[in-house]
Design goal:
The protein has one helix and 41 strands. By secondary structure, it is mainly β. The chain has five domains: about 110 residues, Immunoglobulin-like (Sandwich); about 120 residues, Immunoglobulin-like (Sandwich), CATH 2.60.40; about 100 residues, Immunoglobulins (Immunoglobulin-like); about 90 residues, Immunoglobulins (Immunoglobulin-like); about 200 residues, Macroglobulin (MG2) domain (Immunoglobulin-like), CATH 2.60.40. The longest helix is centred in the C-terminal third of the chain and has 14 residues.
């Protein structure tokens, strides 16, 4: 029994279609062109479809604040070569979309390929860059005219408009004159280029001619589109060269903020100063001002509680502007900008803005002790500014207890509270949090961390006053026992590091709480600052910076110990711990079978920098390592000849780069 399965329907892709338009940003009353491609999907060759259709959908403004959808459609014949176009209407809706669609159909209409594209509707905008607003332009003299015309959309960018022929005019009252090019440059035009830019060296009319009725004063510089409509106008000040000074000409406004920061809920006085182009005050100038509140959203949207307020300047060209930031405003959520616009008697204006610097509330929390101890009160200090009638809620949680309280902040913004941790608390650090709220609704938080007094601390220092490369220096170390109960089980492992381009470390055993380590520096060190770190197992660590003089620079300049440096290089070891020594350490540890006391993580403990004062004066010539107190009597390496450094390969040492 042989069964045959027959496929009843087959979906075969007959065409692949593509579409491009003459522009992505279209203007009203222009031709929108469309080119399509129909492709054989099996080999990529162009193919003529059996039939094809197109459709363009757009919106027009009917003049009554409503819009109407318009659909244009058609069929393409084989001779069209996939091209079609329409003339967009003059009342095309601004900031709308034009939907362009194309279909290619095979036999019976059952095989259809479809493609679409969106064109944005733009507006044509022109801006004059030169001359600037209220700039002085002189009669019978050249001036530079610079402008730019673009297709603009609110959300989809802009593009320059090419090939528009502009006309420039100067207008004062009823008098209007077309401007001509200067003879200084040849072949000039006011036709926009590919970027939409227009420029020319223009000539201002000569007002000495009887036919020219222009006079000193304010005028309009106008650019017109080819159809005669006004593209843009800019205010300029016309003046005859040498006729008078700049006294009273032009207007400039400056905003003078108050000396102190502005507090929320309190009146603040800004000053507007209005002067002419010579810097002389303008009396009676009208000044308009408004306060804007700007959010932190993506578009920087602004809100206003009132409209423009205004006043006139005094004899010094000054006007007081009073502002008030509303009570309850969160300074972190908004910024405030004062906008000021001033006019002179000719109508010229100047606009300035100034951000209002608010006295933003702050709060800090400081522990008044370096560590906390059981049953010992620890005082914390709260320091704040910019708050009004504030309350501090504090909280400290540990494994066994929870501490909390509330205090009021006085007018000086400082307050204190005390926490006492009872014995039995098994914590190494204490975290304290505060929440501050004031009458303006400001809420601030702060925290502080205080560590338990460490059982041990490590101190590393040197008494060397002059350190020269290649010499032996003495390093003093001390294990400081604070509140540790158990006795130290000797020996302990001491690791000395010299951190640099190639980090190097040396491990030793010590048998006493304090001692001196002899350390020979490499002879080829450059003059500079170097870092030495001492880490004693389970007891802590300390670091030290030393300033080294190279042998070449050793001409009487003293080296010293410093606490600031960023230069790190390698150094030769005091004692090289061979595999025999490491084996000895392991053997000792196994024989003794000691158990380490849990002393906490030394990296979490603050390092004390207080140097002990009971140190003996170091010897002028340091003894061998095995004769110094606290050092393990180990076999010594061969002596290194003076002024010569031999970096043995077993240490992996490479000569450091110059500091």
């Amino acid at each position: 029994d042989v069964r045959t399965k027959v496929c009843q329907n087959t979906d075969v892709e007959m065409y692949r279609v593509e579409l491009i338009t003459s522009t992505d940003l279209a203007l009203p009353d222009e031709v929108l062109e469309v080119w399509t491609n129909t492709i054989n999907p099996r080999n990529g060759a162009p193919i003529t479809p059996e039939s094809s259709e197109w459709e363009i959908v757009y919106f027009i403004d009917d003049g009554d604040f409503s819009y109407e959808e318009v659909i244009k459609s058609g069929r393409l014949n084989p001779s069209s070569d996939g091209y079609f176009s329409i003339i967009l209407p003059t009342n095309l809706r601004e900031e709308s979309n034009i939907q362009v669609q194309f279909w290619a159909n095979a036999s019976g209409g059952t095989q259809t390929s479809y493609v679409s594209s969106v064109v944005r509707v733009a507006t044509l905008e022109t801006q004059i860059n030169l001359p600037t607003n209220s700039q002085t332009v002189y009669f019978n003299e050249e001036f530079i005219l610079s402008a730019k015309v673009t297709r603009e959309t609110q959300y989809y960018g802009s593009m320059g408009e090419n090939g528009l022929q502009f006309t420039a005019l100067i207008k004062q009252g009823d008098a209007q004159y077309t401007l001509s090019f200067s003879d200084s440059l040849a072949q000039q035009s006011l036709i926009s280029d590919d970027k939409g830019e227009i420029s020319g060296l223009m000539m201002m009319p000569d007002n000495n001619y009887p036919s020219i009725t222009l006079v000193d004063g304010f005028a309009e510089l106008i650019l017109k589109y080819p159809d005669g409509s006004i593209a843009v106008s800019e205010g300029v000040f016309l003046l005859e060269r040498g006729s008078e000074s700049n006294t009273g000409m032009g207007v400039n406004v400056d905003i003078i903020p108050p000396t102190n920061l502005v507090n929320v809920g309190q009146e603040a006085i800004f000053k507007a100063k209005v002067v002419d182009d010579e810097g002389l005050p303008i009396q009676g100038a009208w000044v308009y001002h408004i306060l804007e509140k700007r959010g932190d959203d993506y578009y920087g949207s602004s809100t206003r509680d009132t409209g423009w307020a205004y006043g006139q300047t005094d004899s010094q060209g000054m006007l007081d502007i009073s502002i008030l930031i509303s009570q309850g405003t969160n300074p972190e959520a908004y910024t405030y900008m004062l906008m000021v616009k001033a006019f002179n008697v000719s109508g010229a204006s100047d606009l300035e803005s100034e951000y209002v610097q608010l006295n933003e509330p702050t709060v800090s929390l400081f522990p008044m002790a370096p560590y906390w101890q059981e049953n010992v009160p620890v005082k914390f200090k709260v320091v704040s500014s910019g708050l009004s009638d504030a309350i501090v809620n504090w909280q400290a949680d540990t494994n066994l207890f929870e501490f909390e309280g509330k205090i009021a902040l006085p007018k000086n913004g400082e307050a204190e509270f005390t926490i006492t941790i009872p014995s039995g608390e098994d914590v190494s650090r204490l975290d304290v949090n505060i929440i501050v709220i004031d009458s303006n609704g400001n809420i601030l938080t702060e925290n502080s961390r205080l560590y338990h007094e460490p059982s041990y601390e490590i101190d590393l220092w040197t008494n060397e006053e002059r350190i020269v490369a290649g010499e032996v220096i003495e390093l003093n170390y001390k294990i400081i026992q604070n509140k540790a109960i158990q006795a130290i089980q000797w020996p302990v492992i001491l690791e000395l590091k010299f951190v640099g381009g190639t980090s190097y470390s040396e491990t030793n055993l010590v048998f006493e709480k304090e001692g001196i380590l002899a350390f020979q520096l490499p002879s080829d060190l450059e003059t500079g600052t170097y870092l030495i770190e001492l880490d004693i197992e389970d007891f802590g660590e300390d670091i030290m910076f030393i300033e080294v003089i190279s042998q070449e620079d050793d001409s009487g300049i003293s080296g010293s110990v410093s606490s600031f440096s960023h230069s790190m290089q390698d150094i030769s070891p005091i004692i090289s711990l061979s595999s025999l020594v490491l084996g000895s350490i392991c053997l000792i540890m196994l024989i003794r079978g000691r158990k380490k006391e849990d002393l906490g993580d030394p990296w979490d403990l603050p390092v004390s920098k207080n140097k002990p004062t009971n140190q003996q004066t170091p010897q002028s010539n340091p003894p061998p390592m095995n004769s110094l107190p606290g050092a393990m009597n180990l076999p010594q390496p061969p002596p290194i000849p003076q002024n010569q450094y031999d970096p043995s390969p077993q240490f992996g040492y490479q000569p450091p780069p110059p500091y």
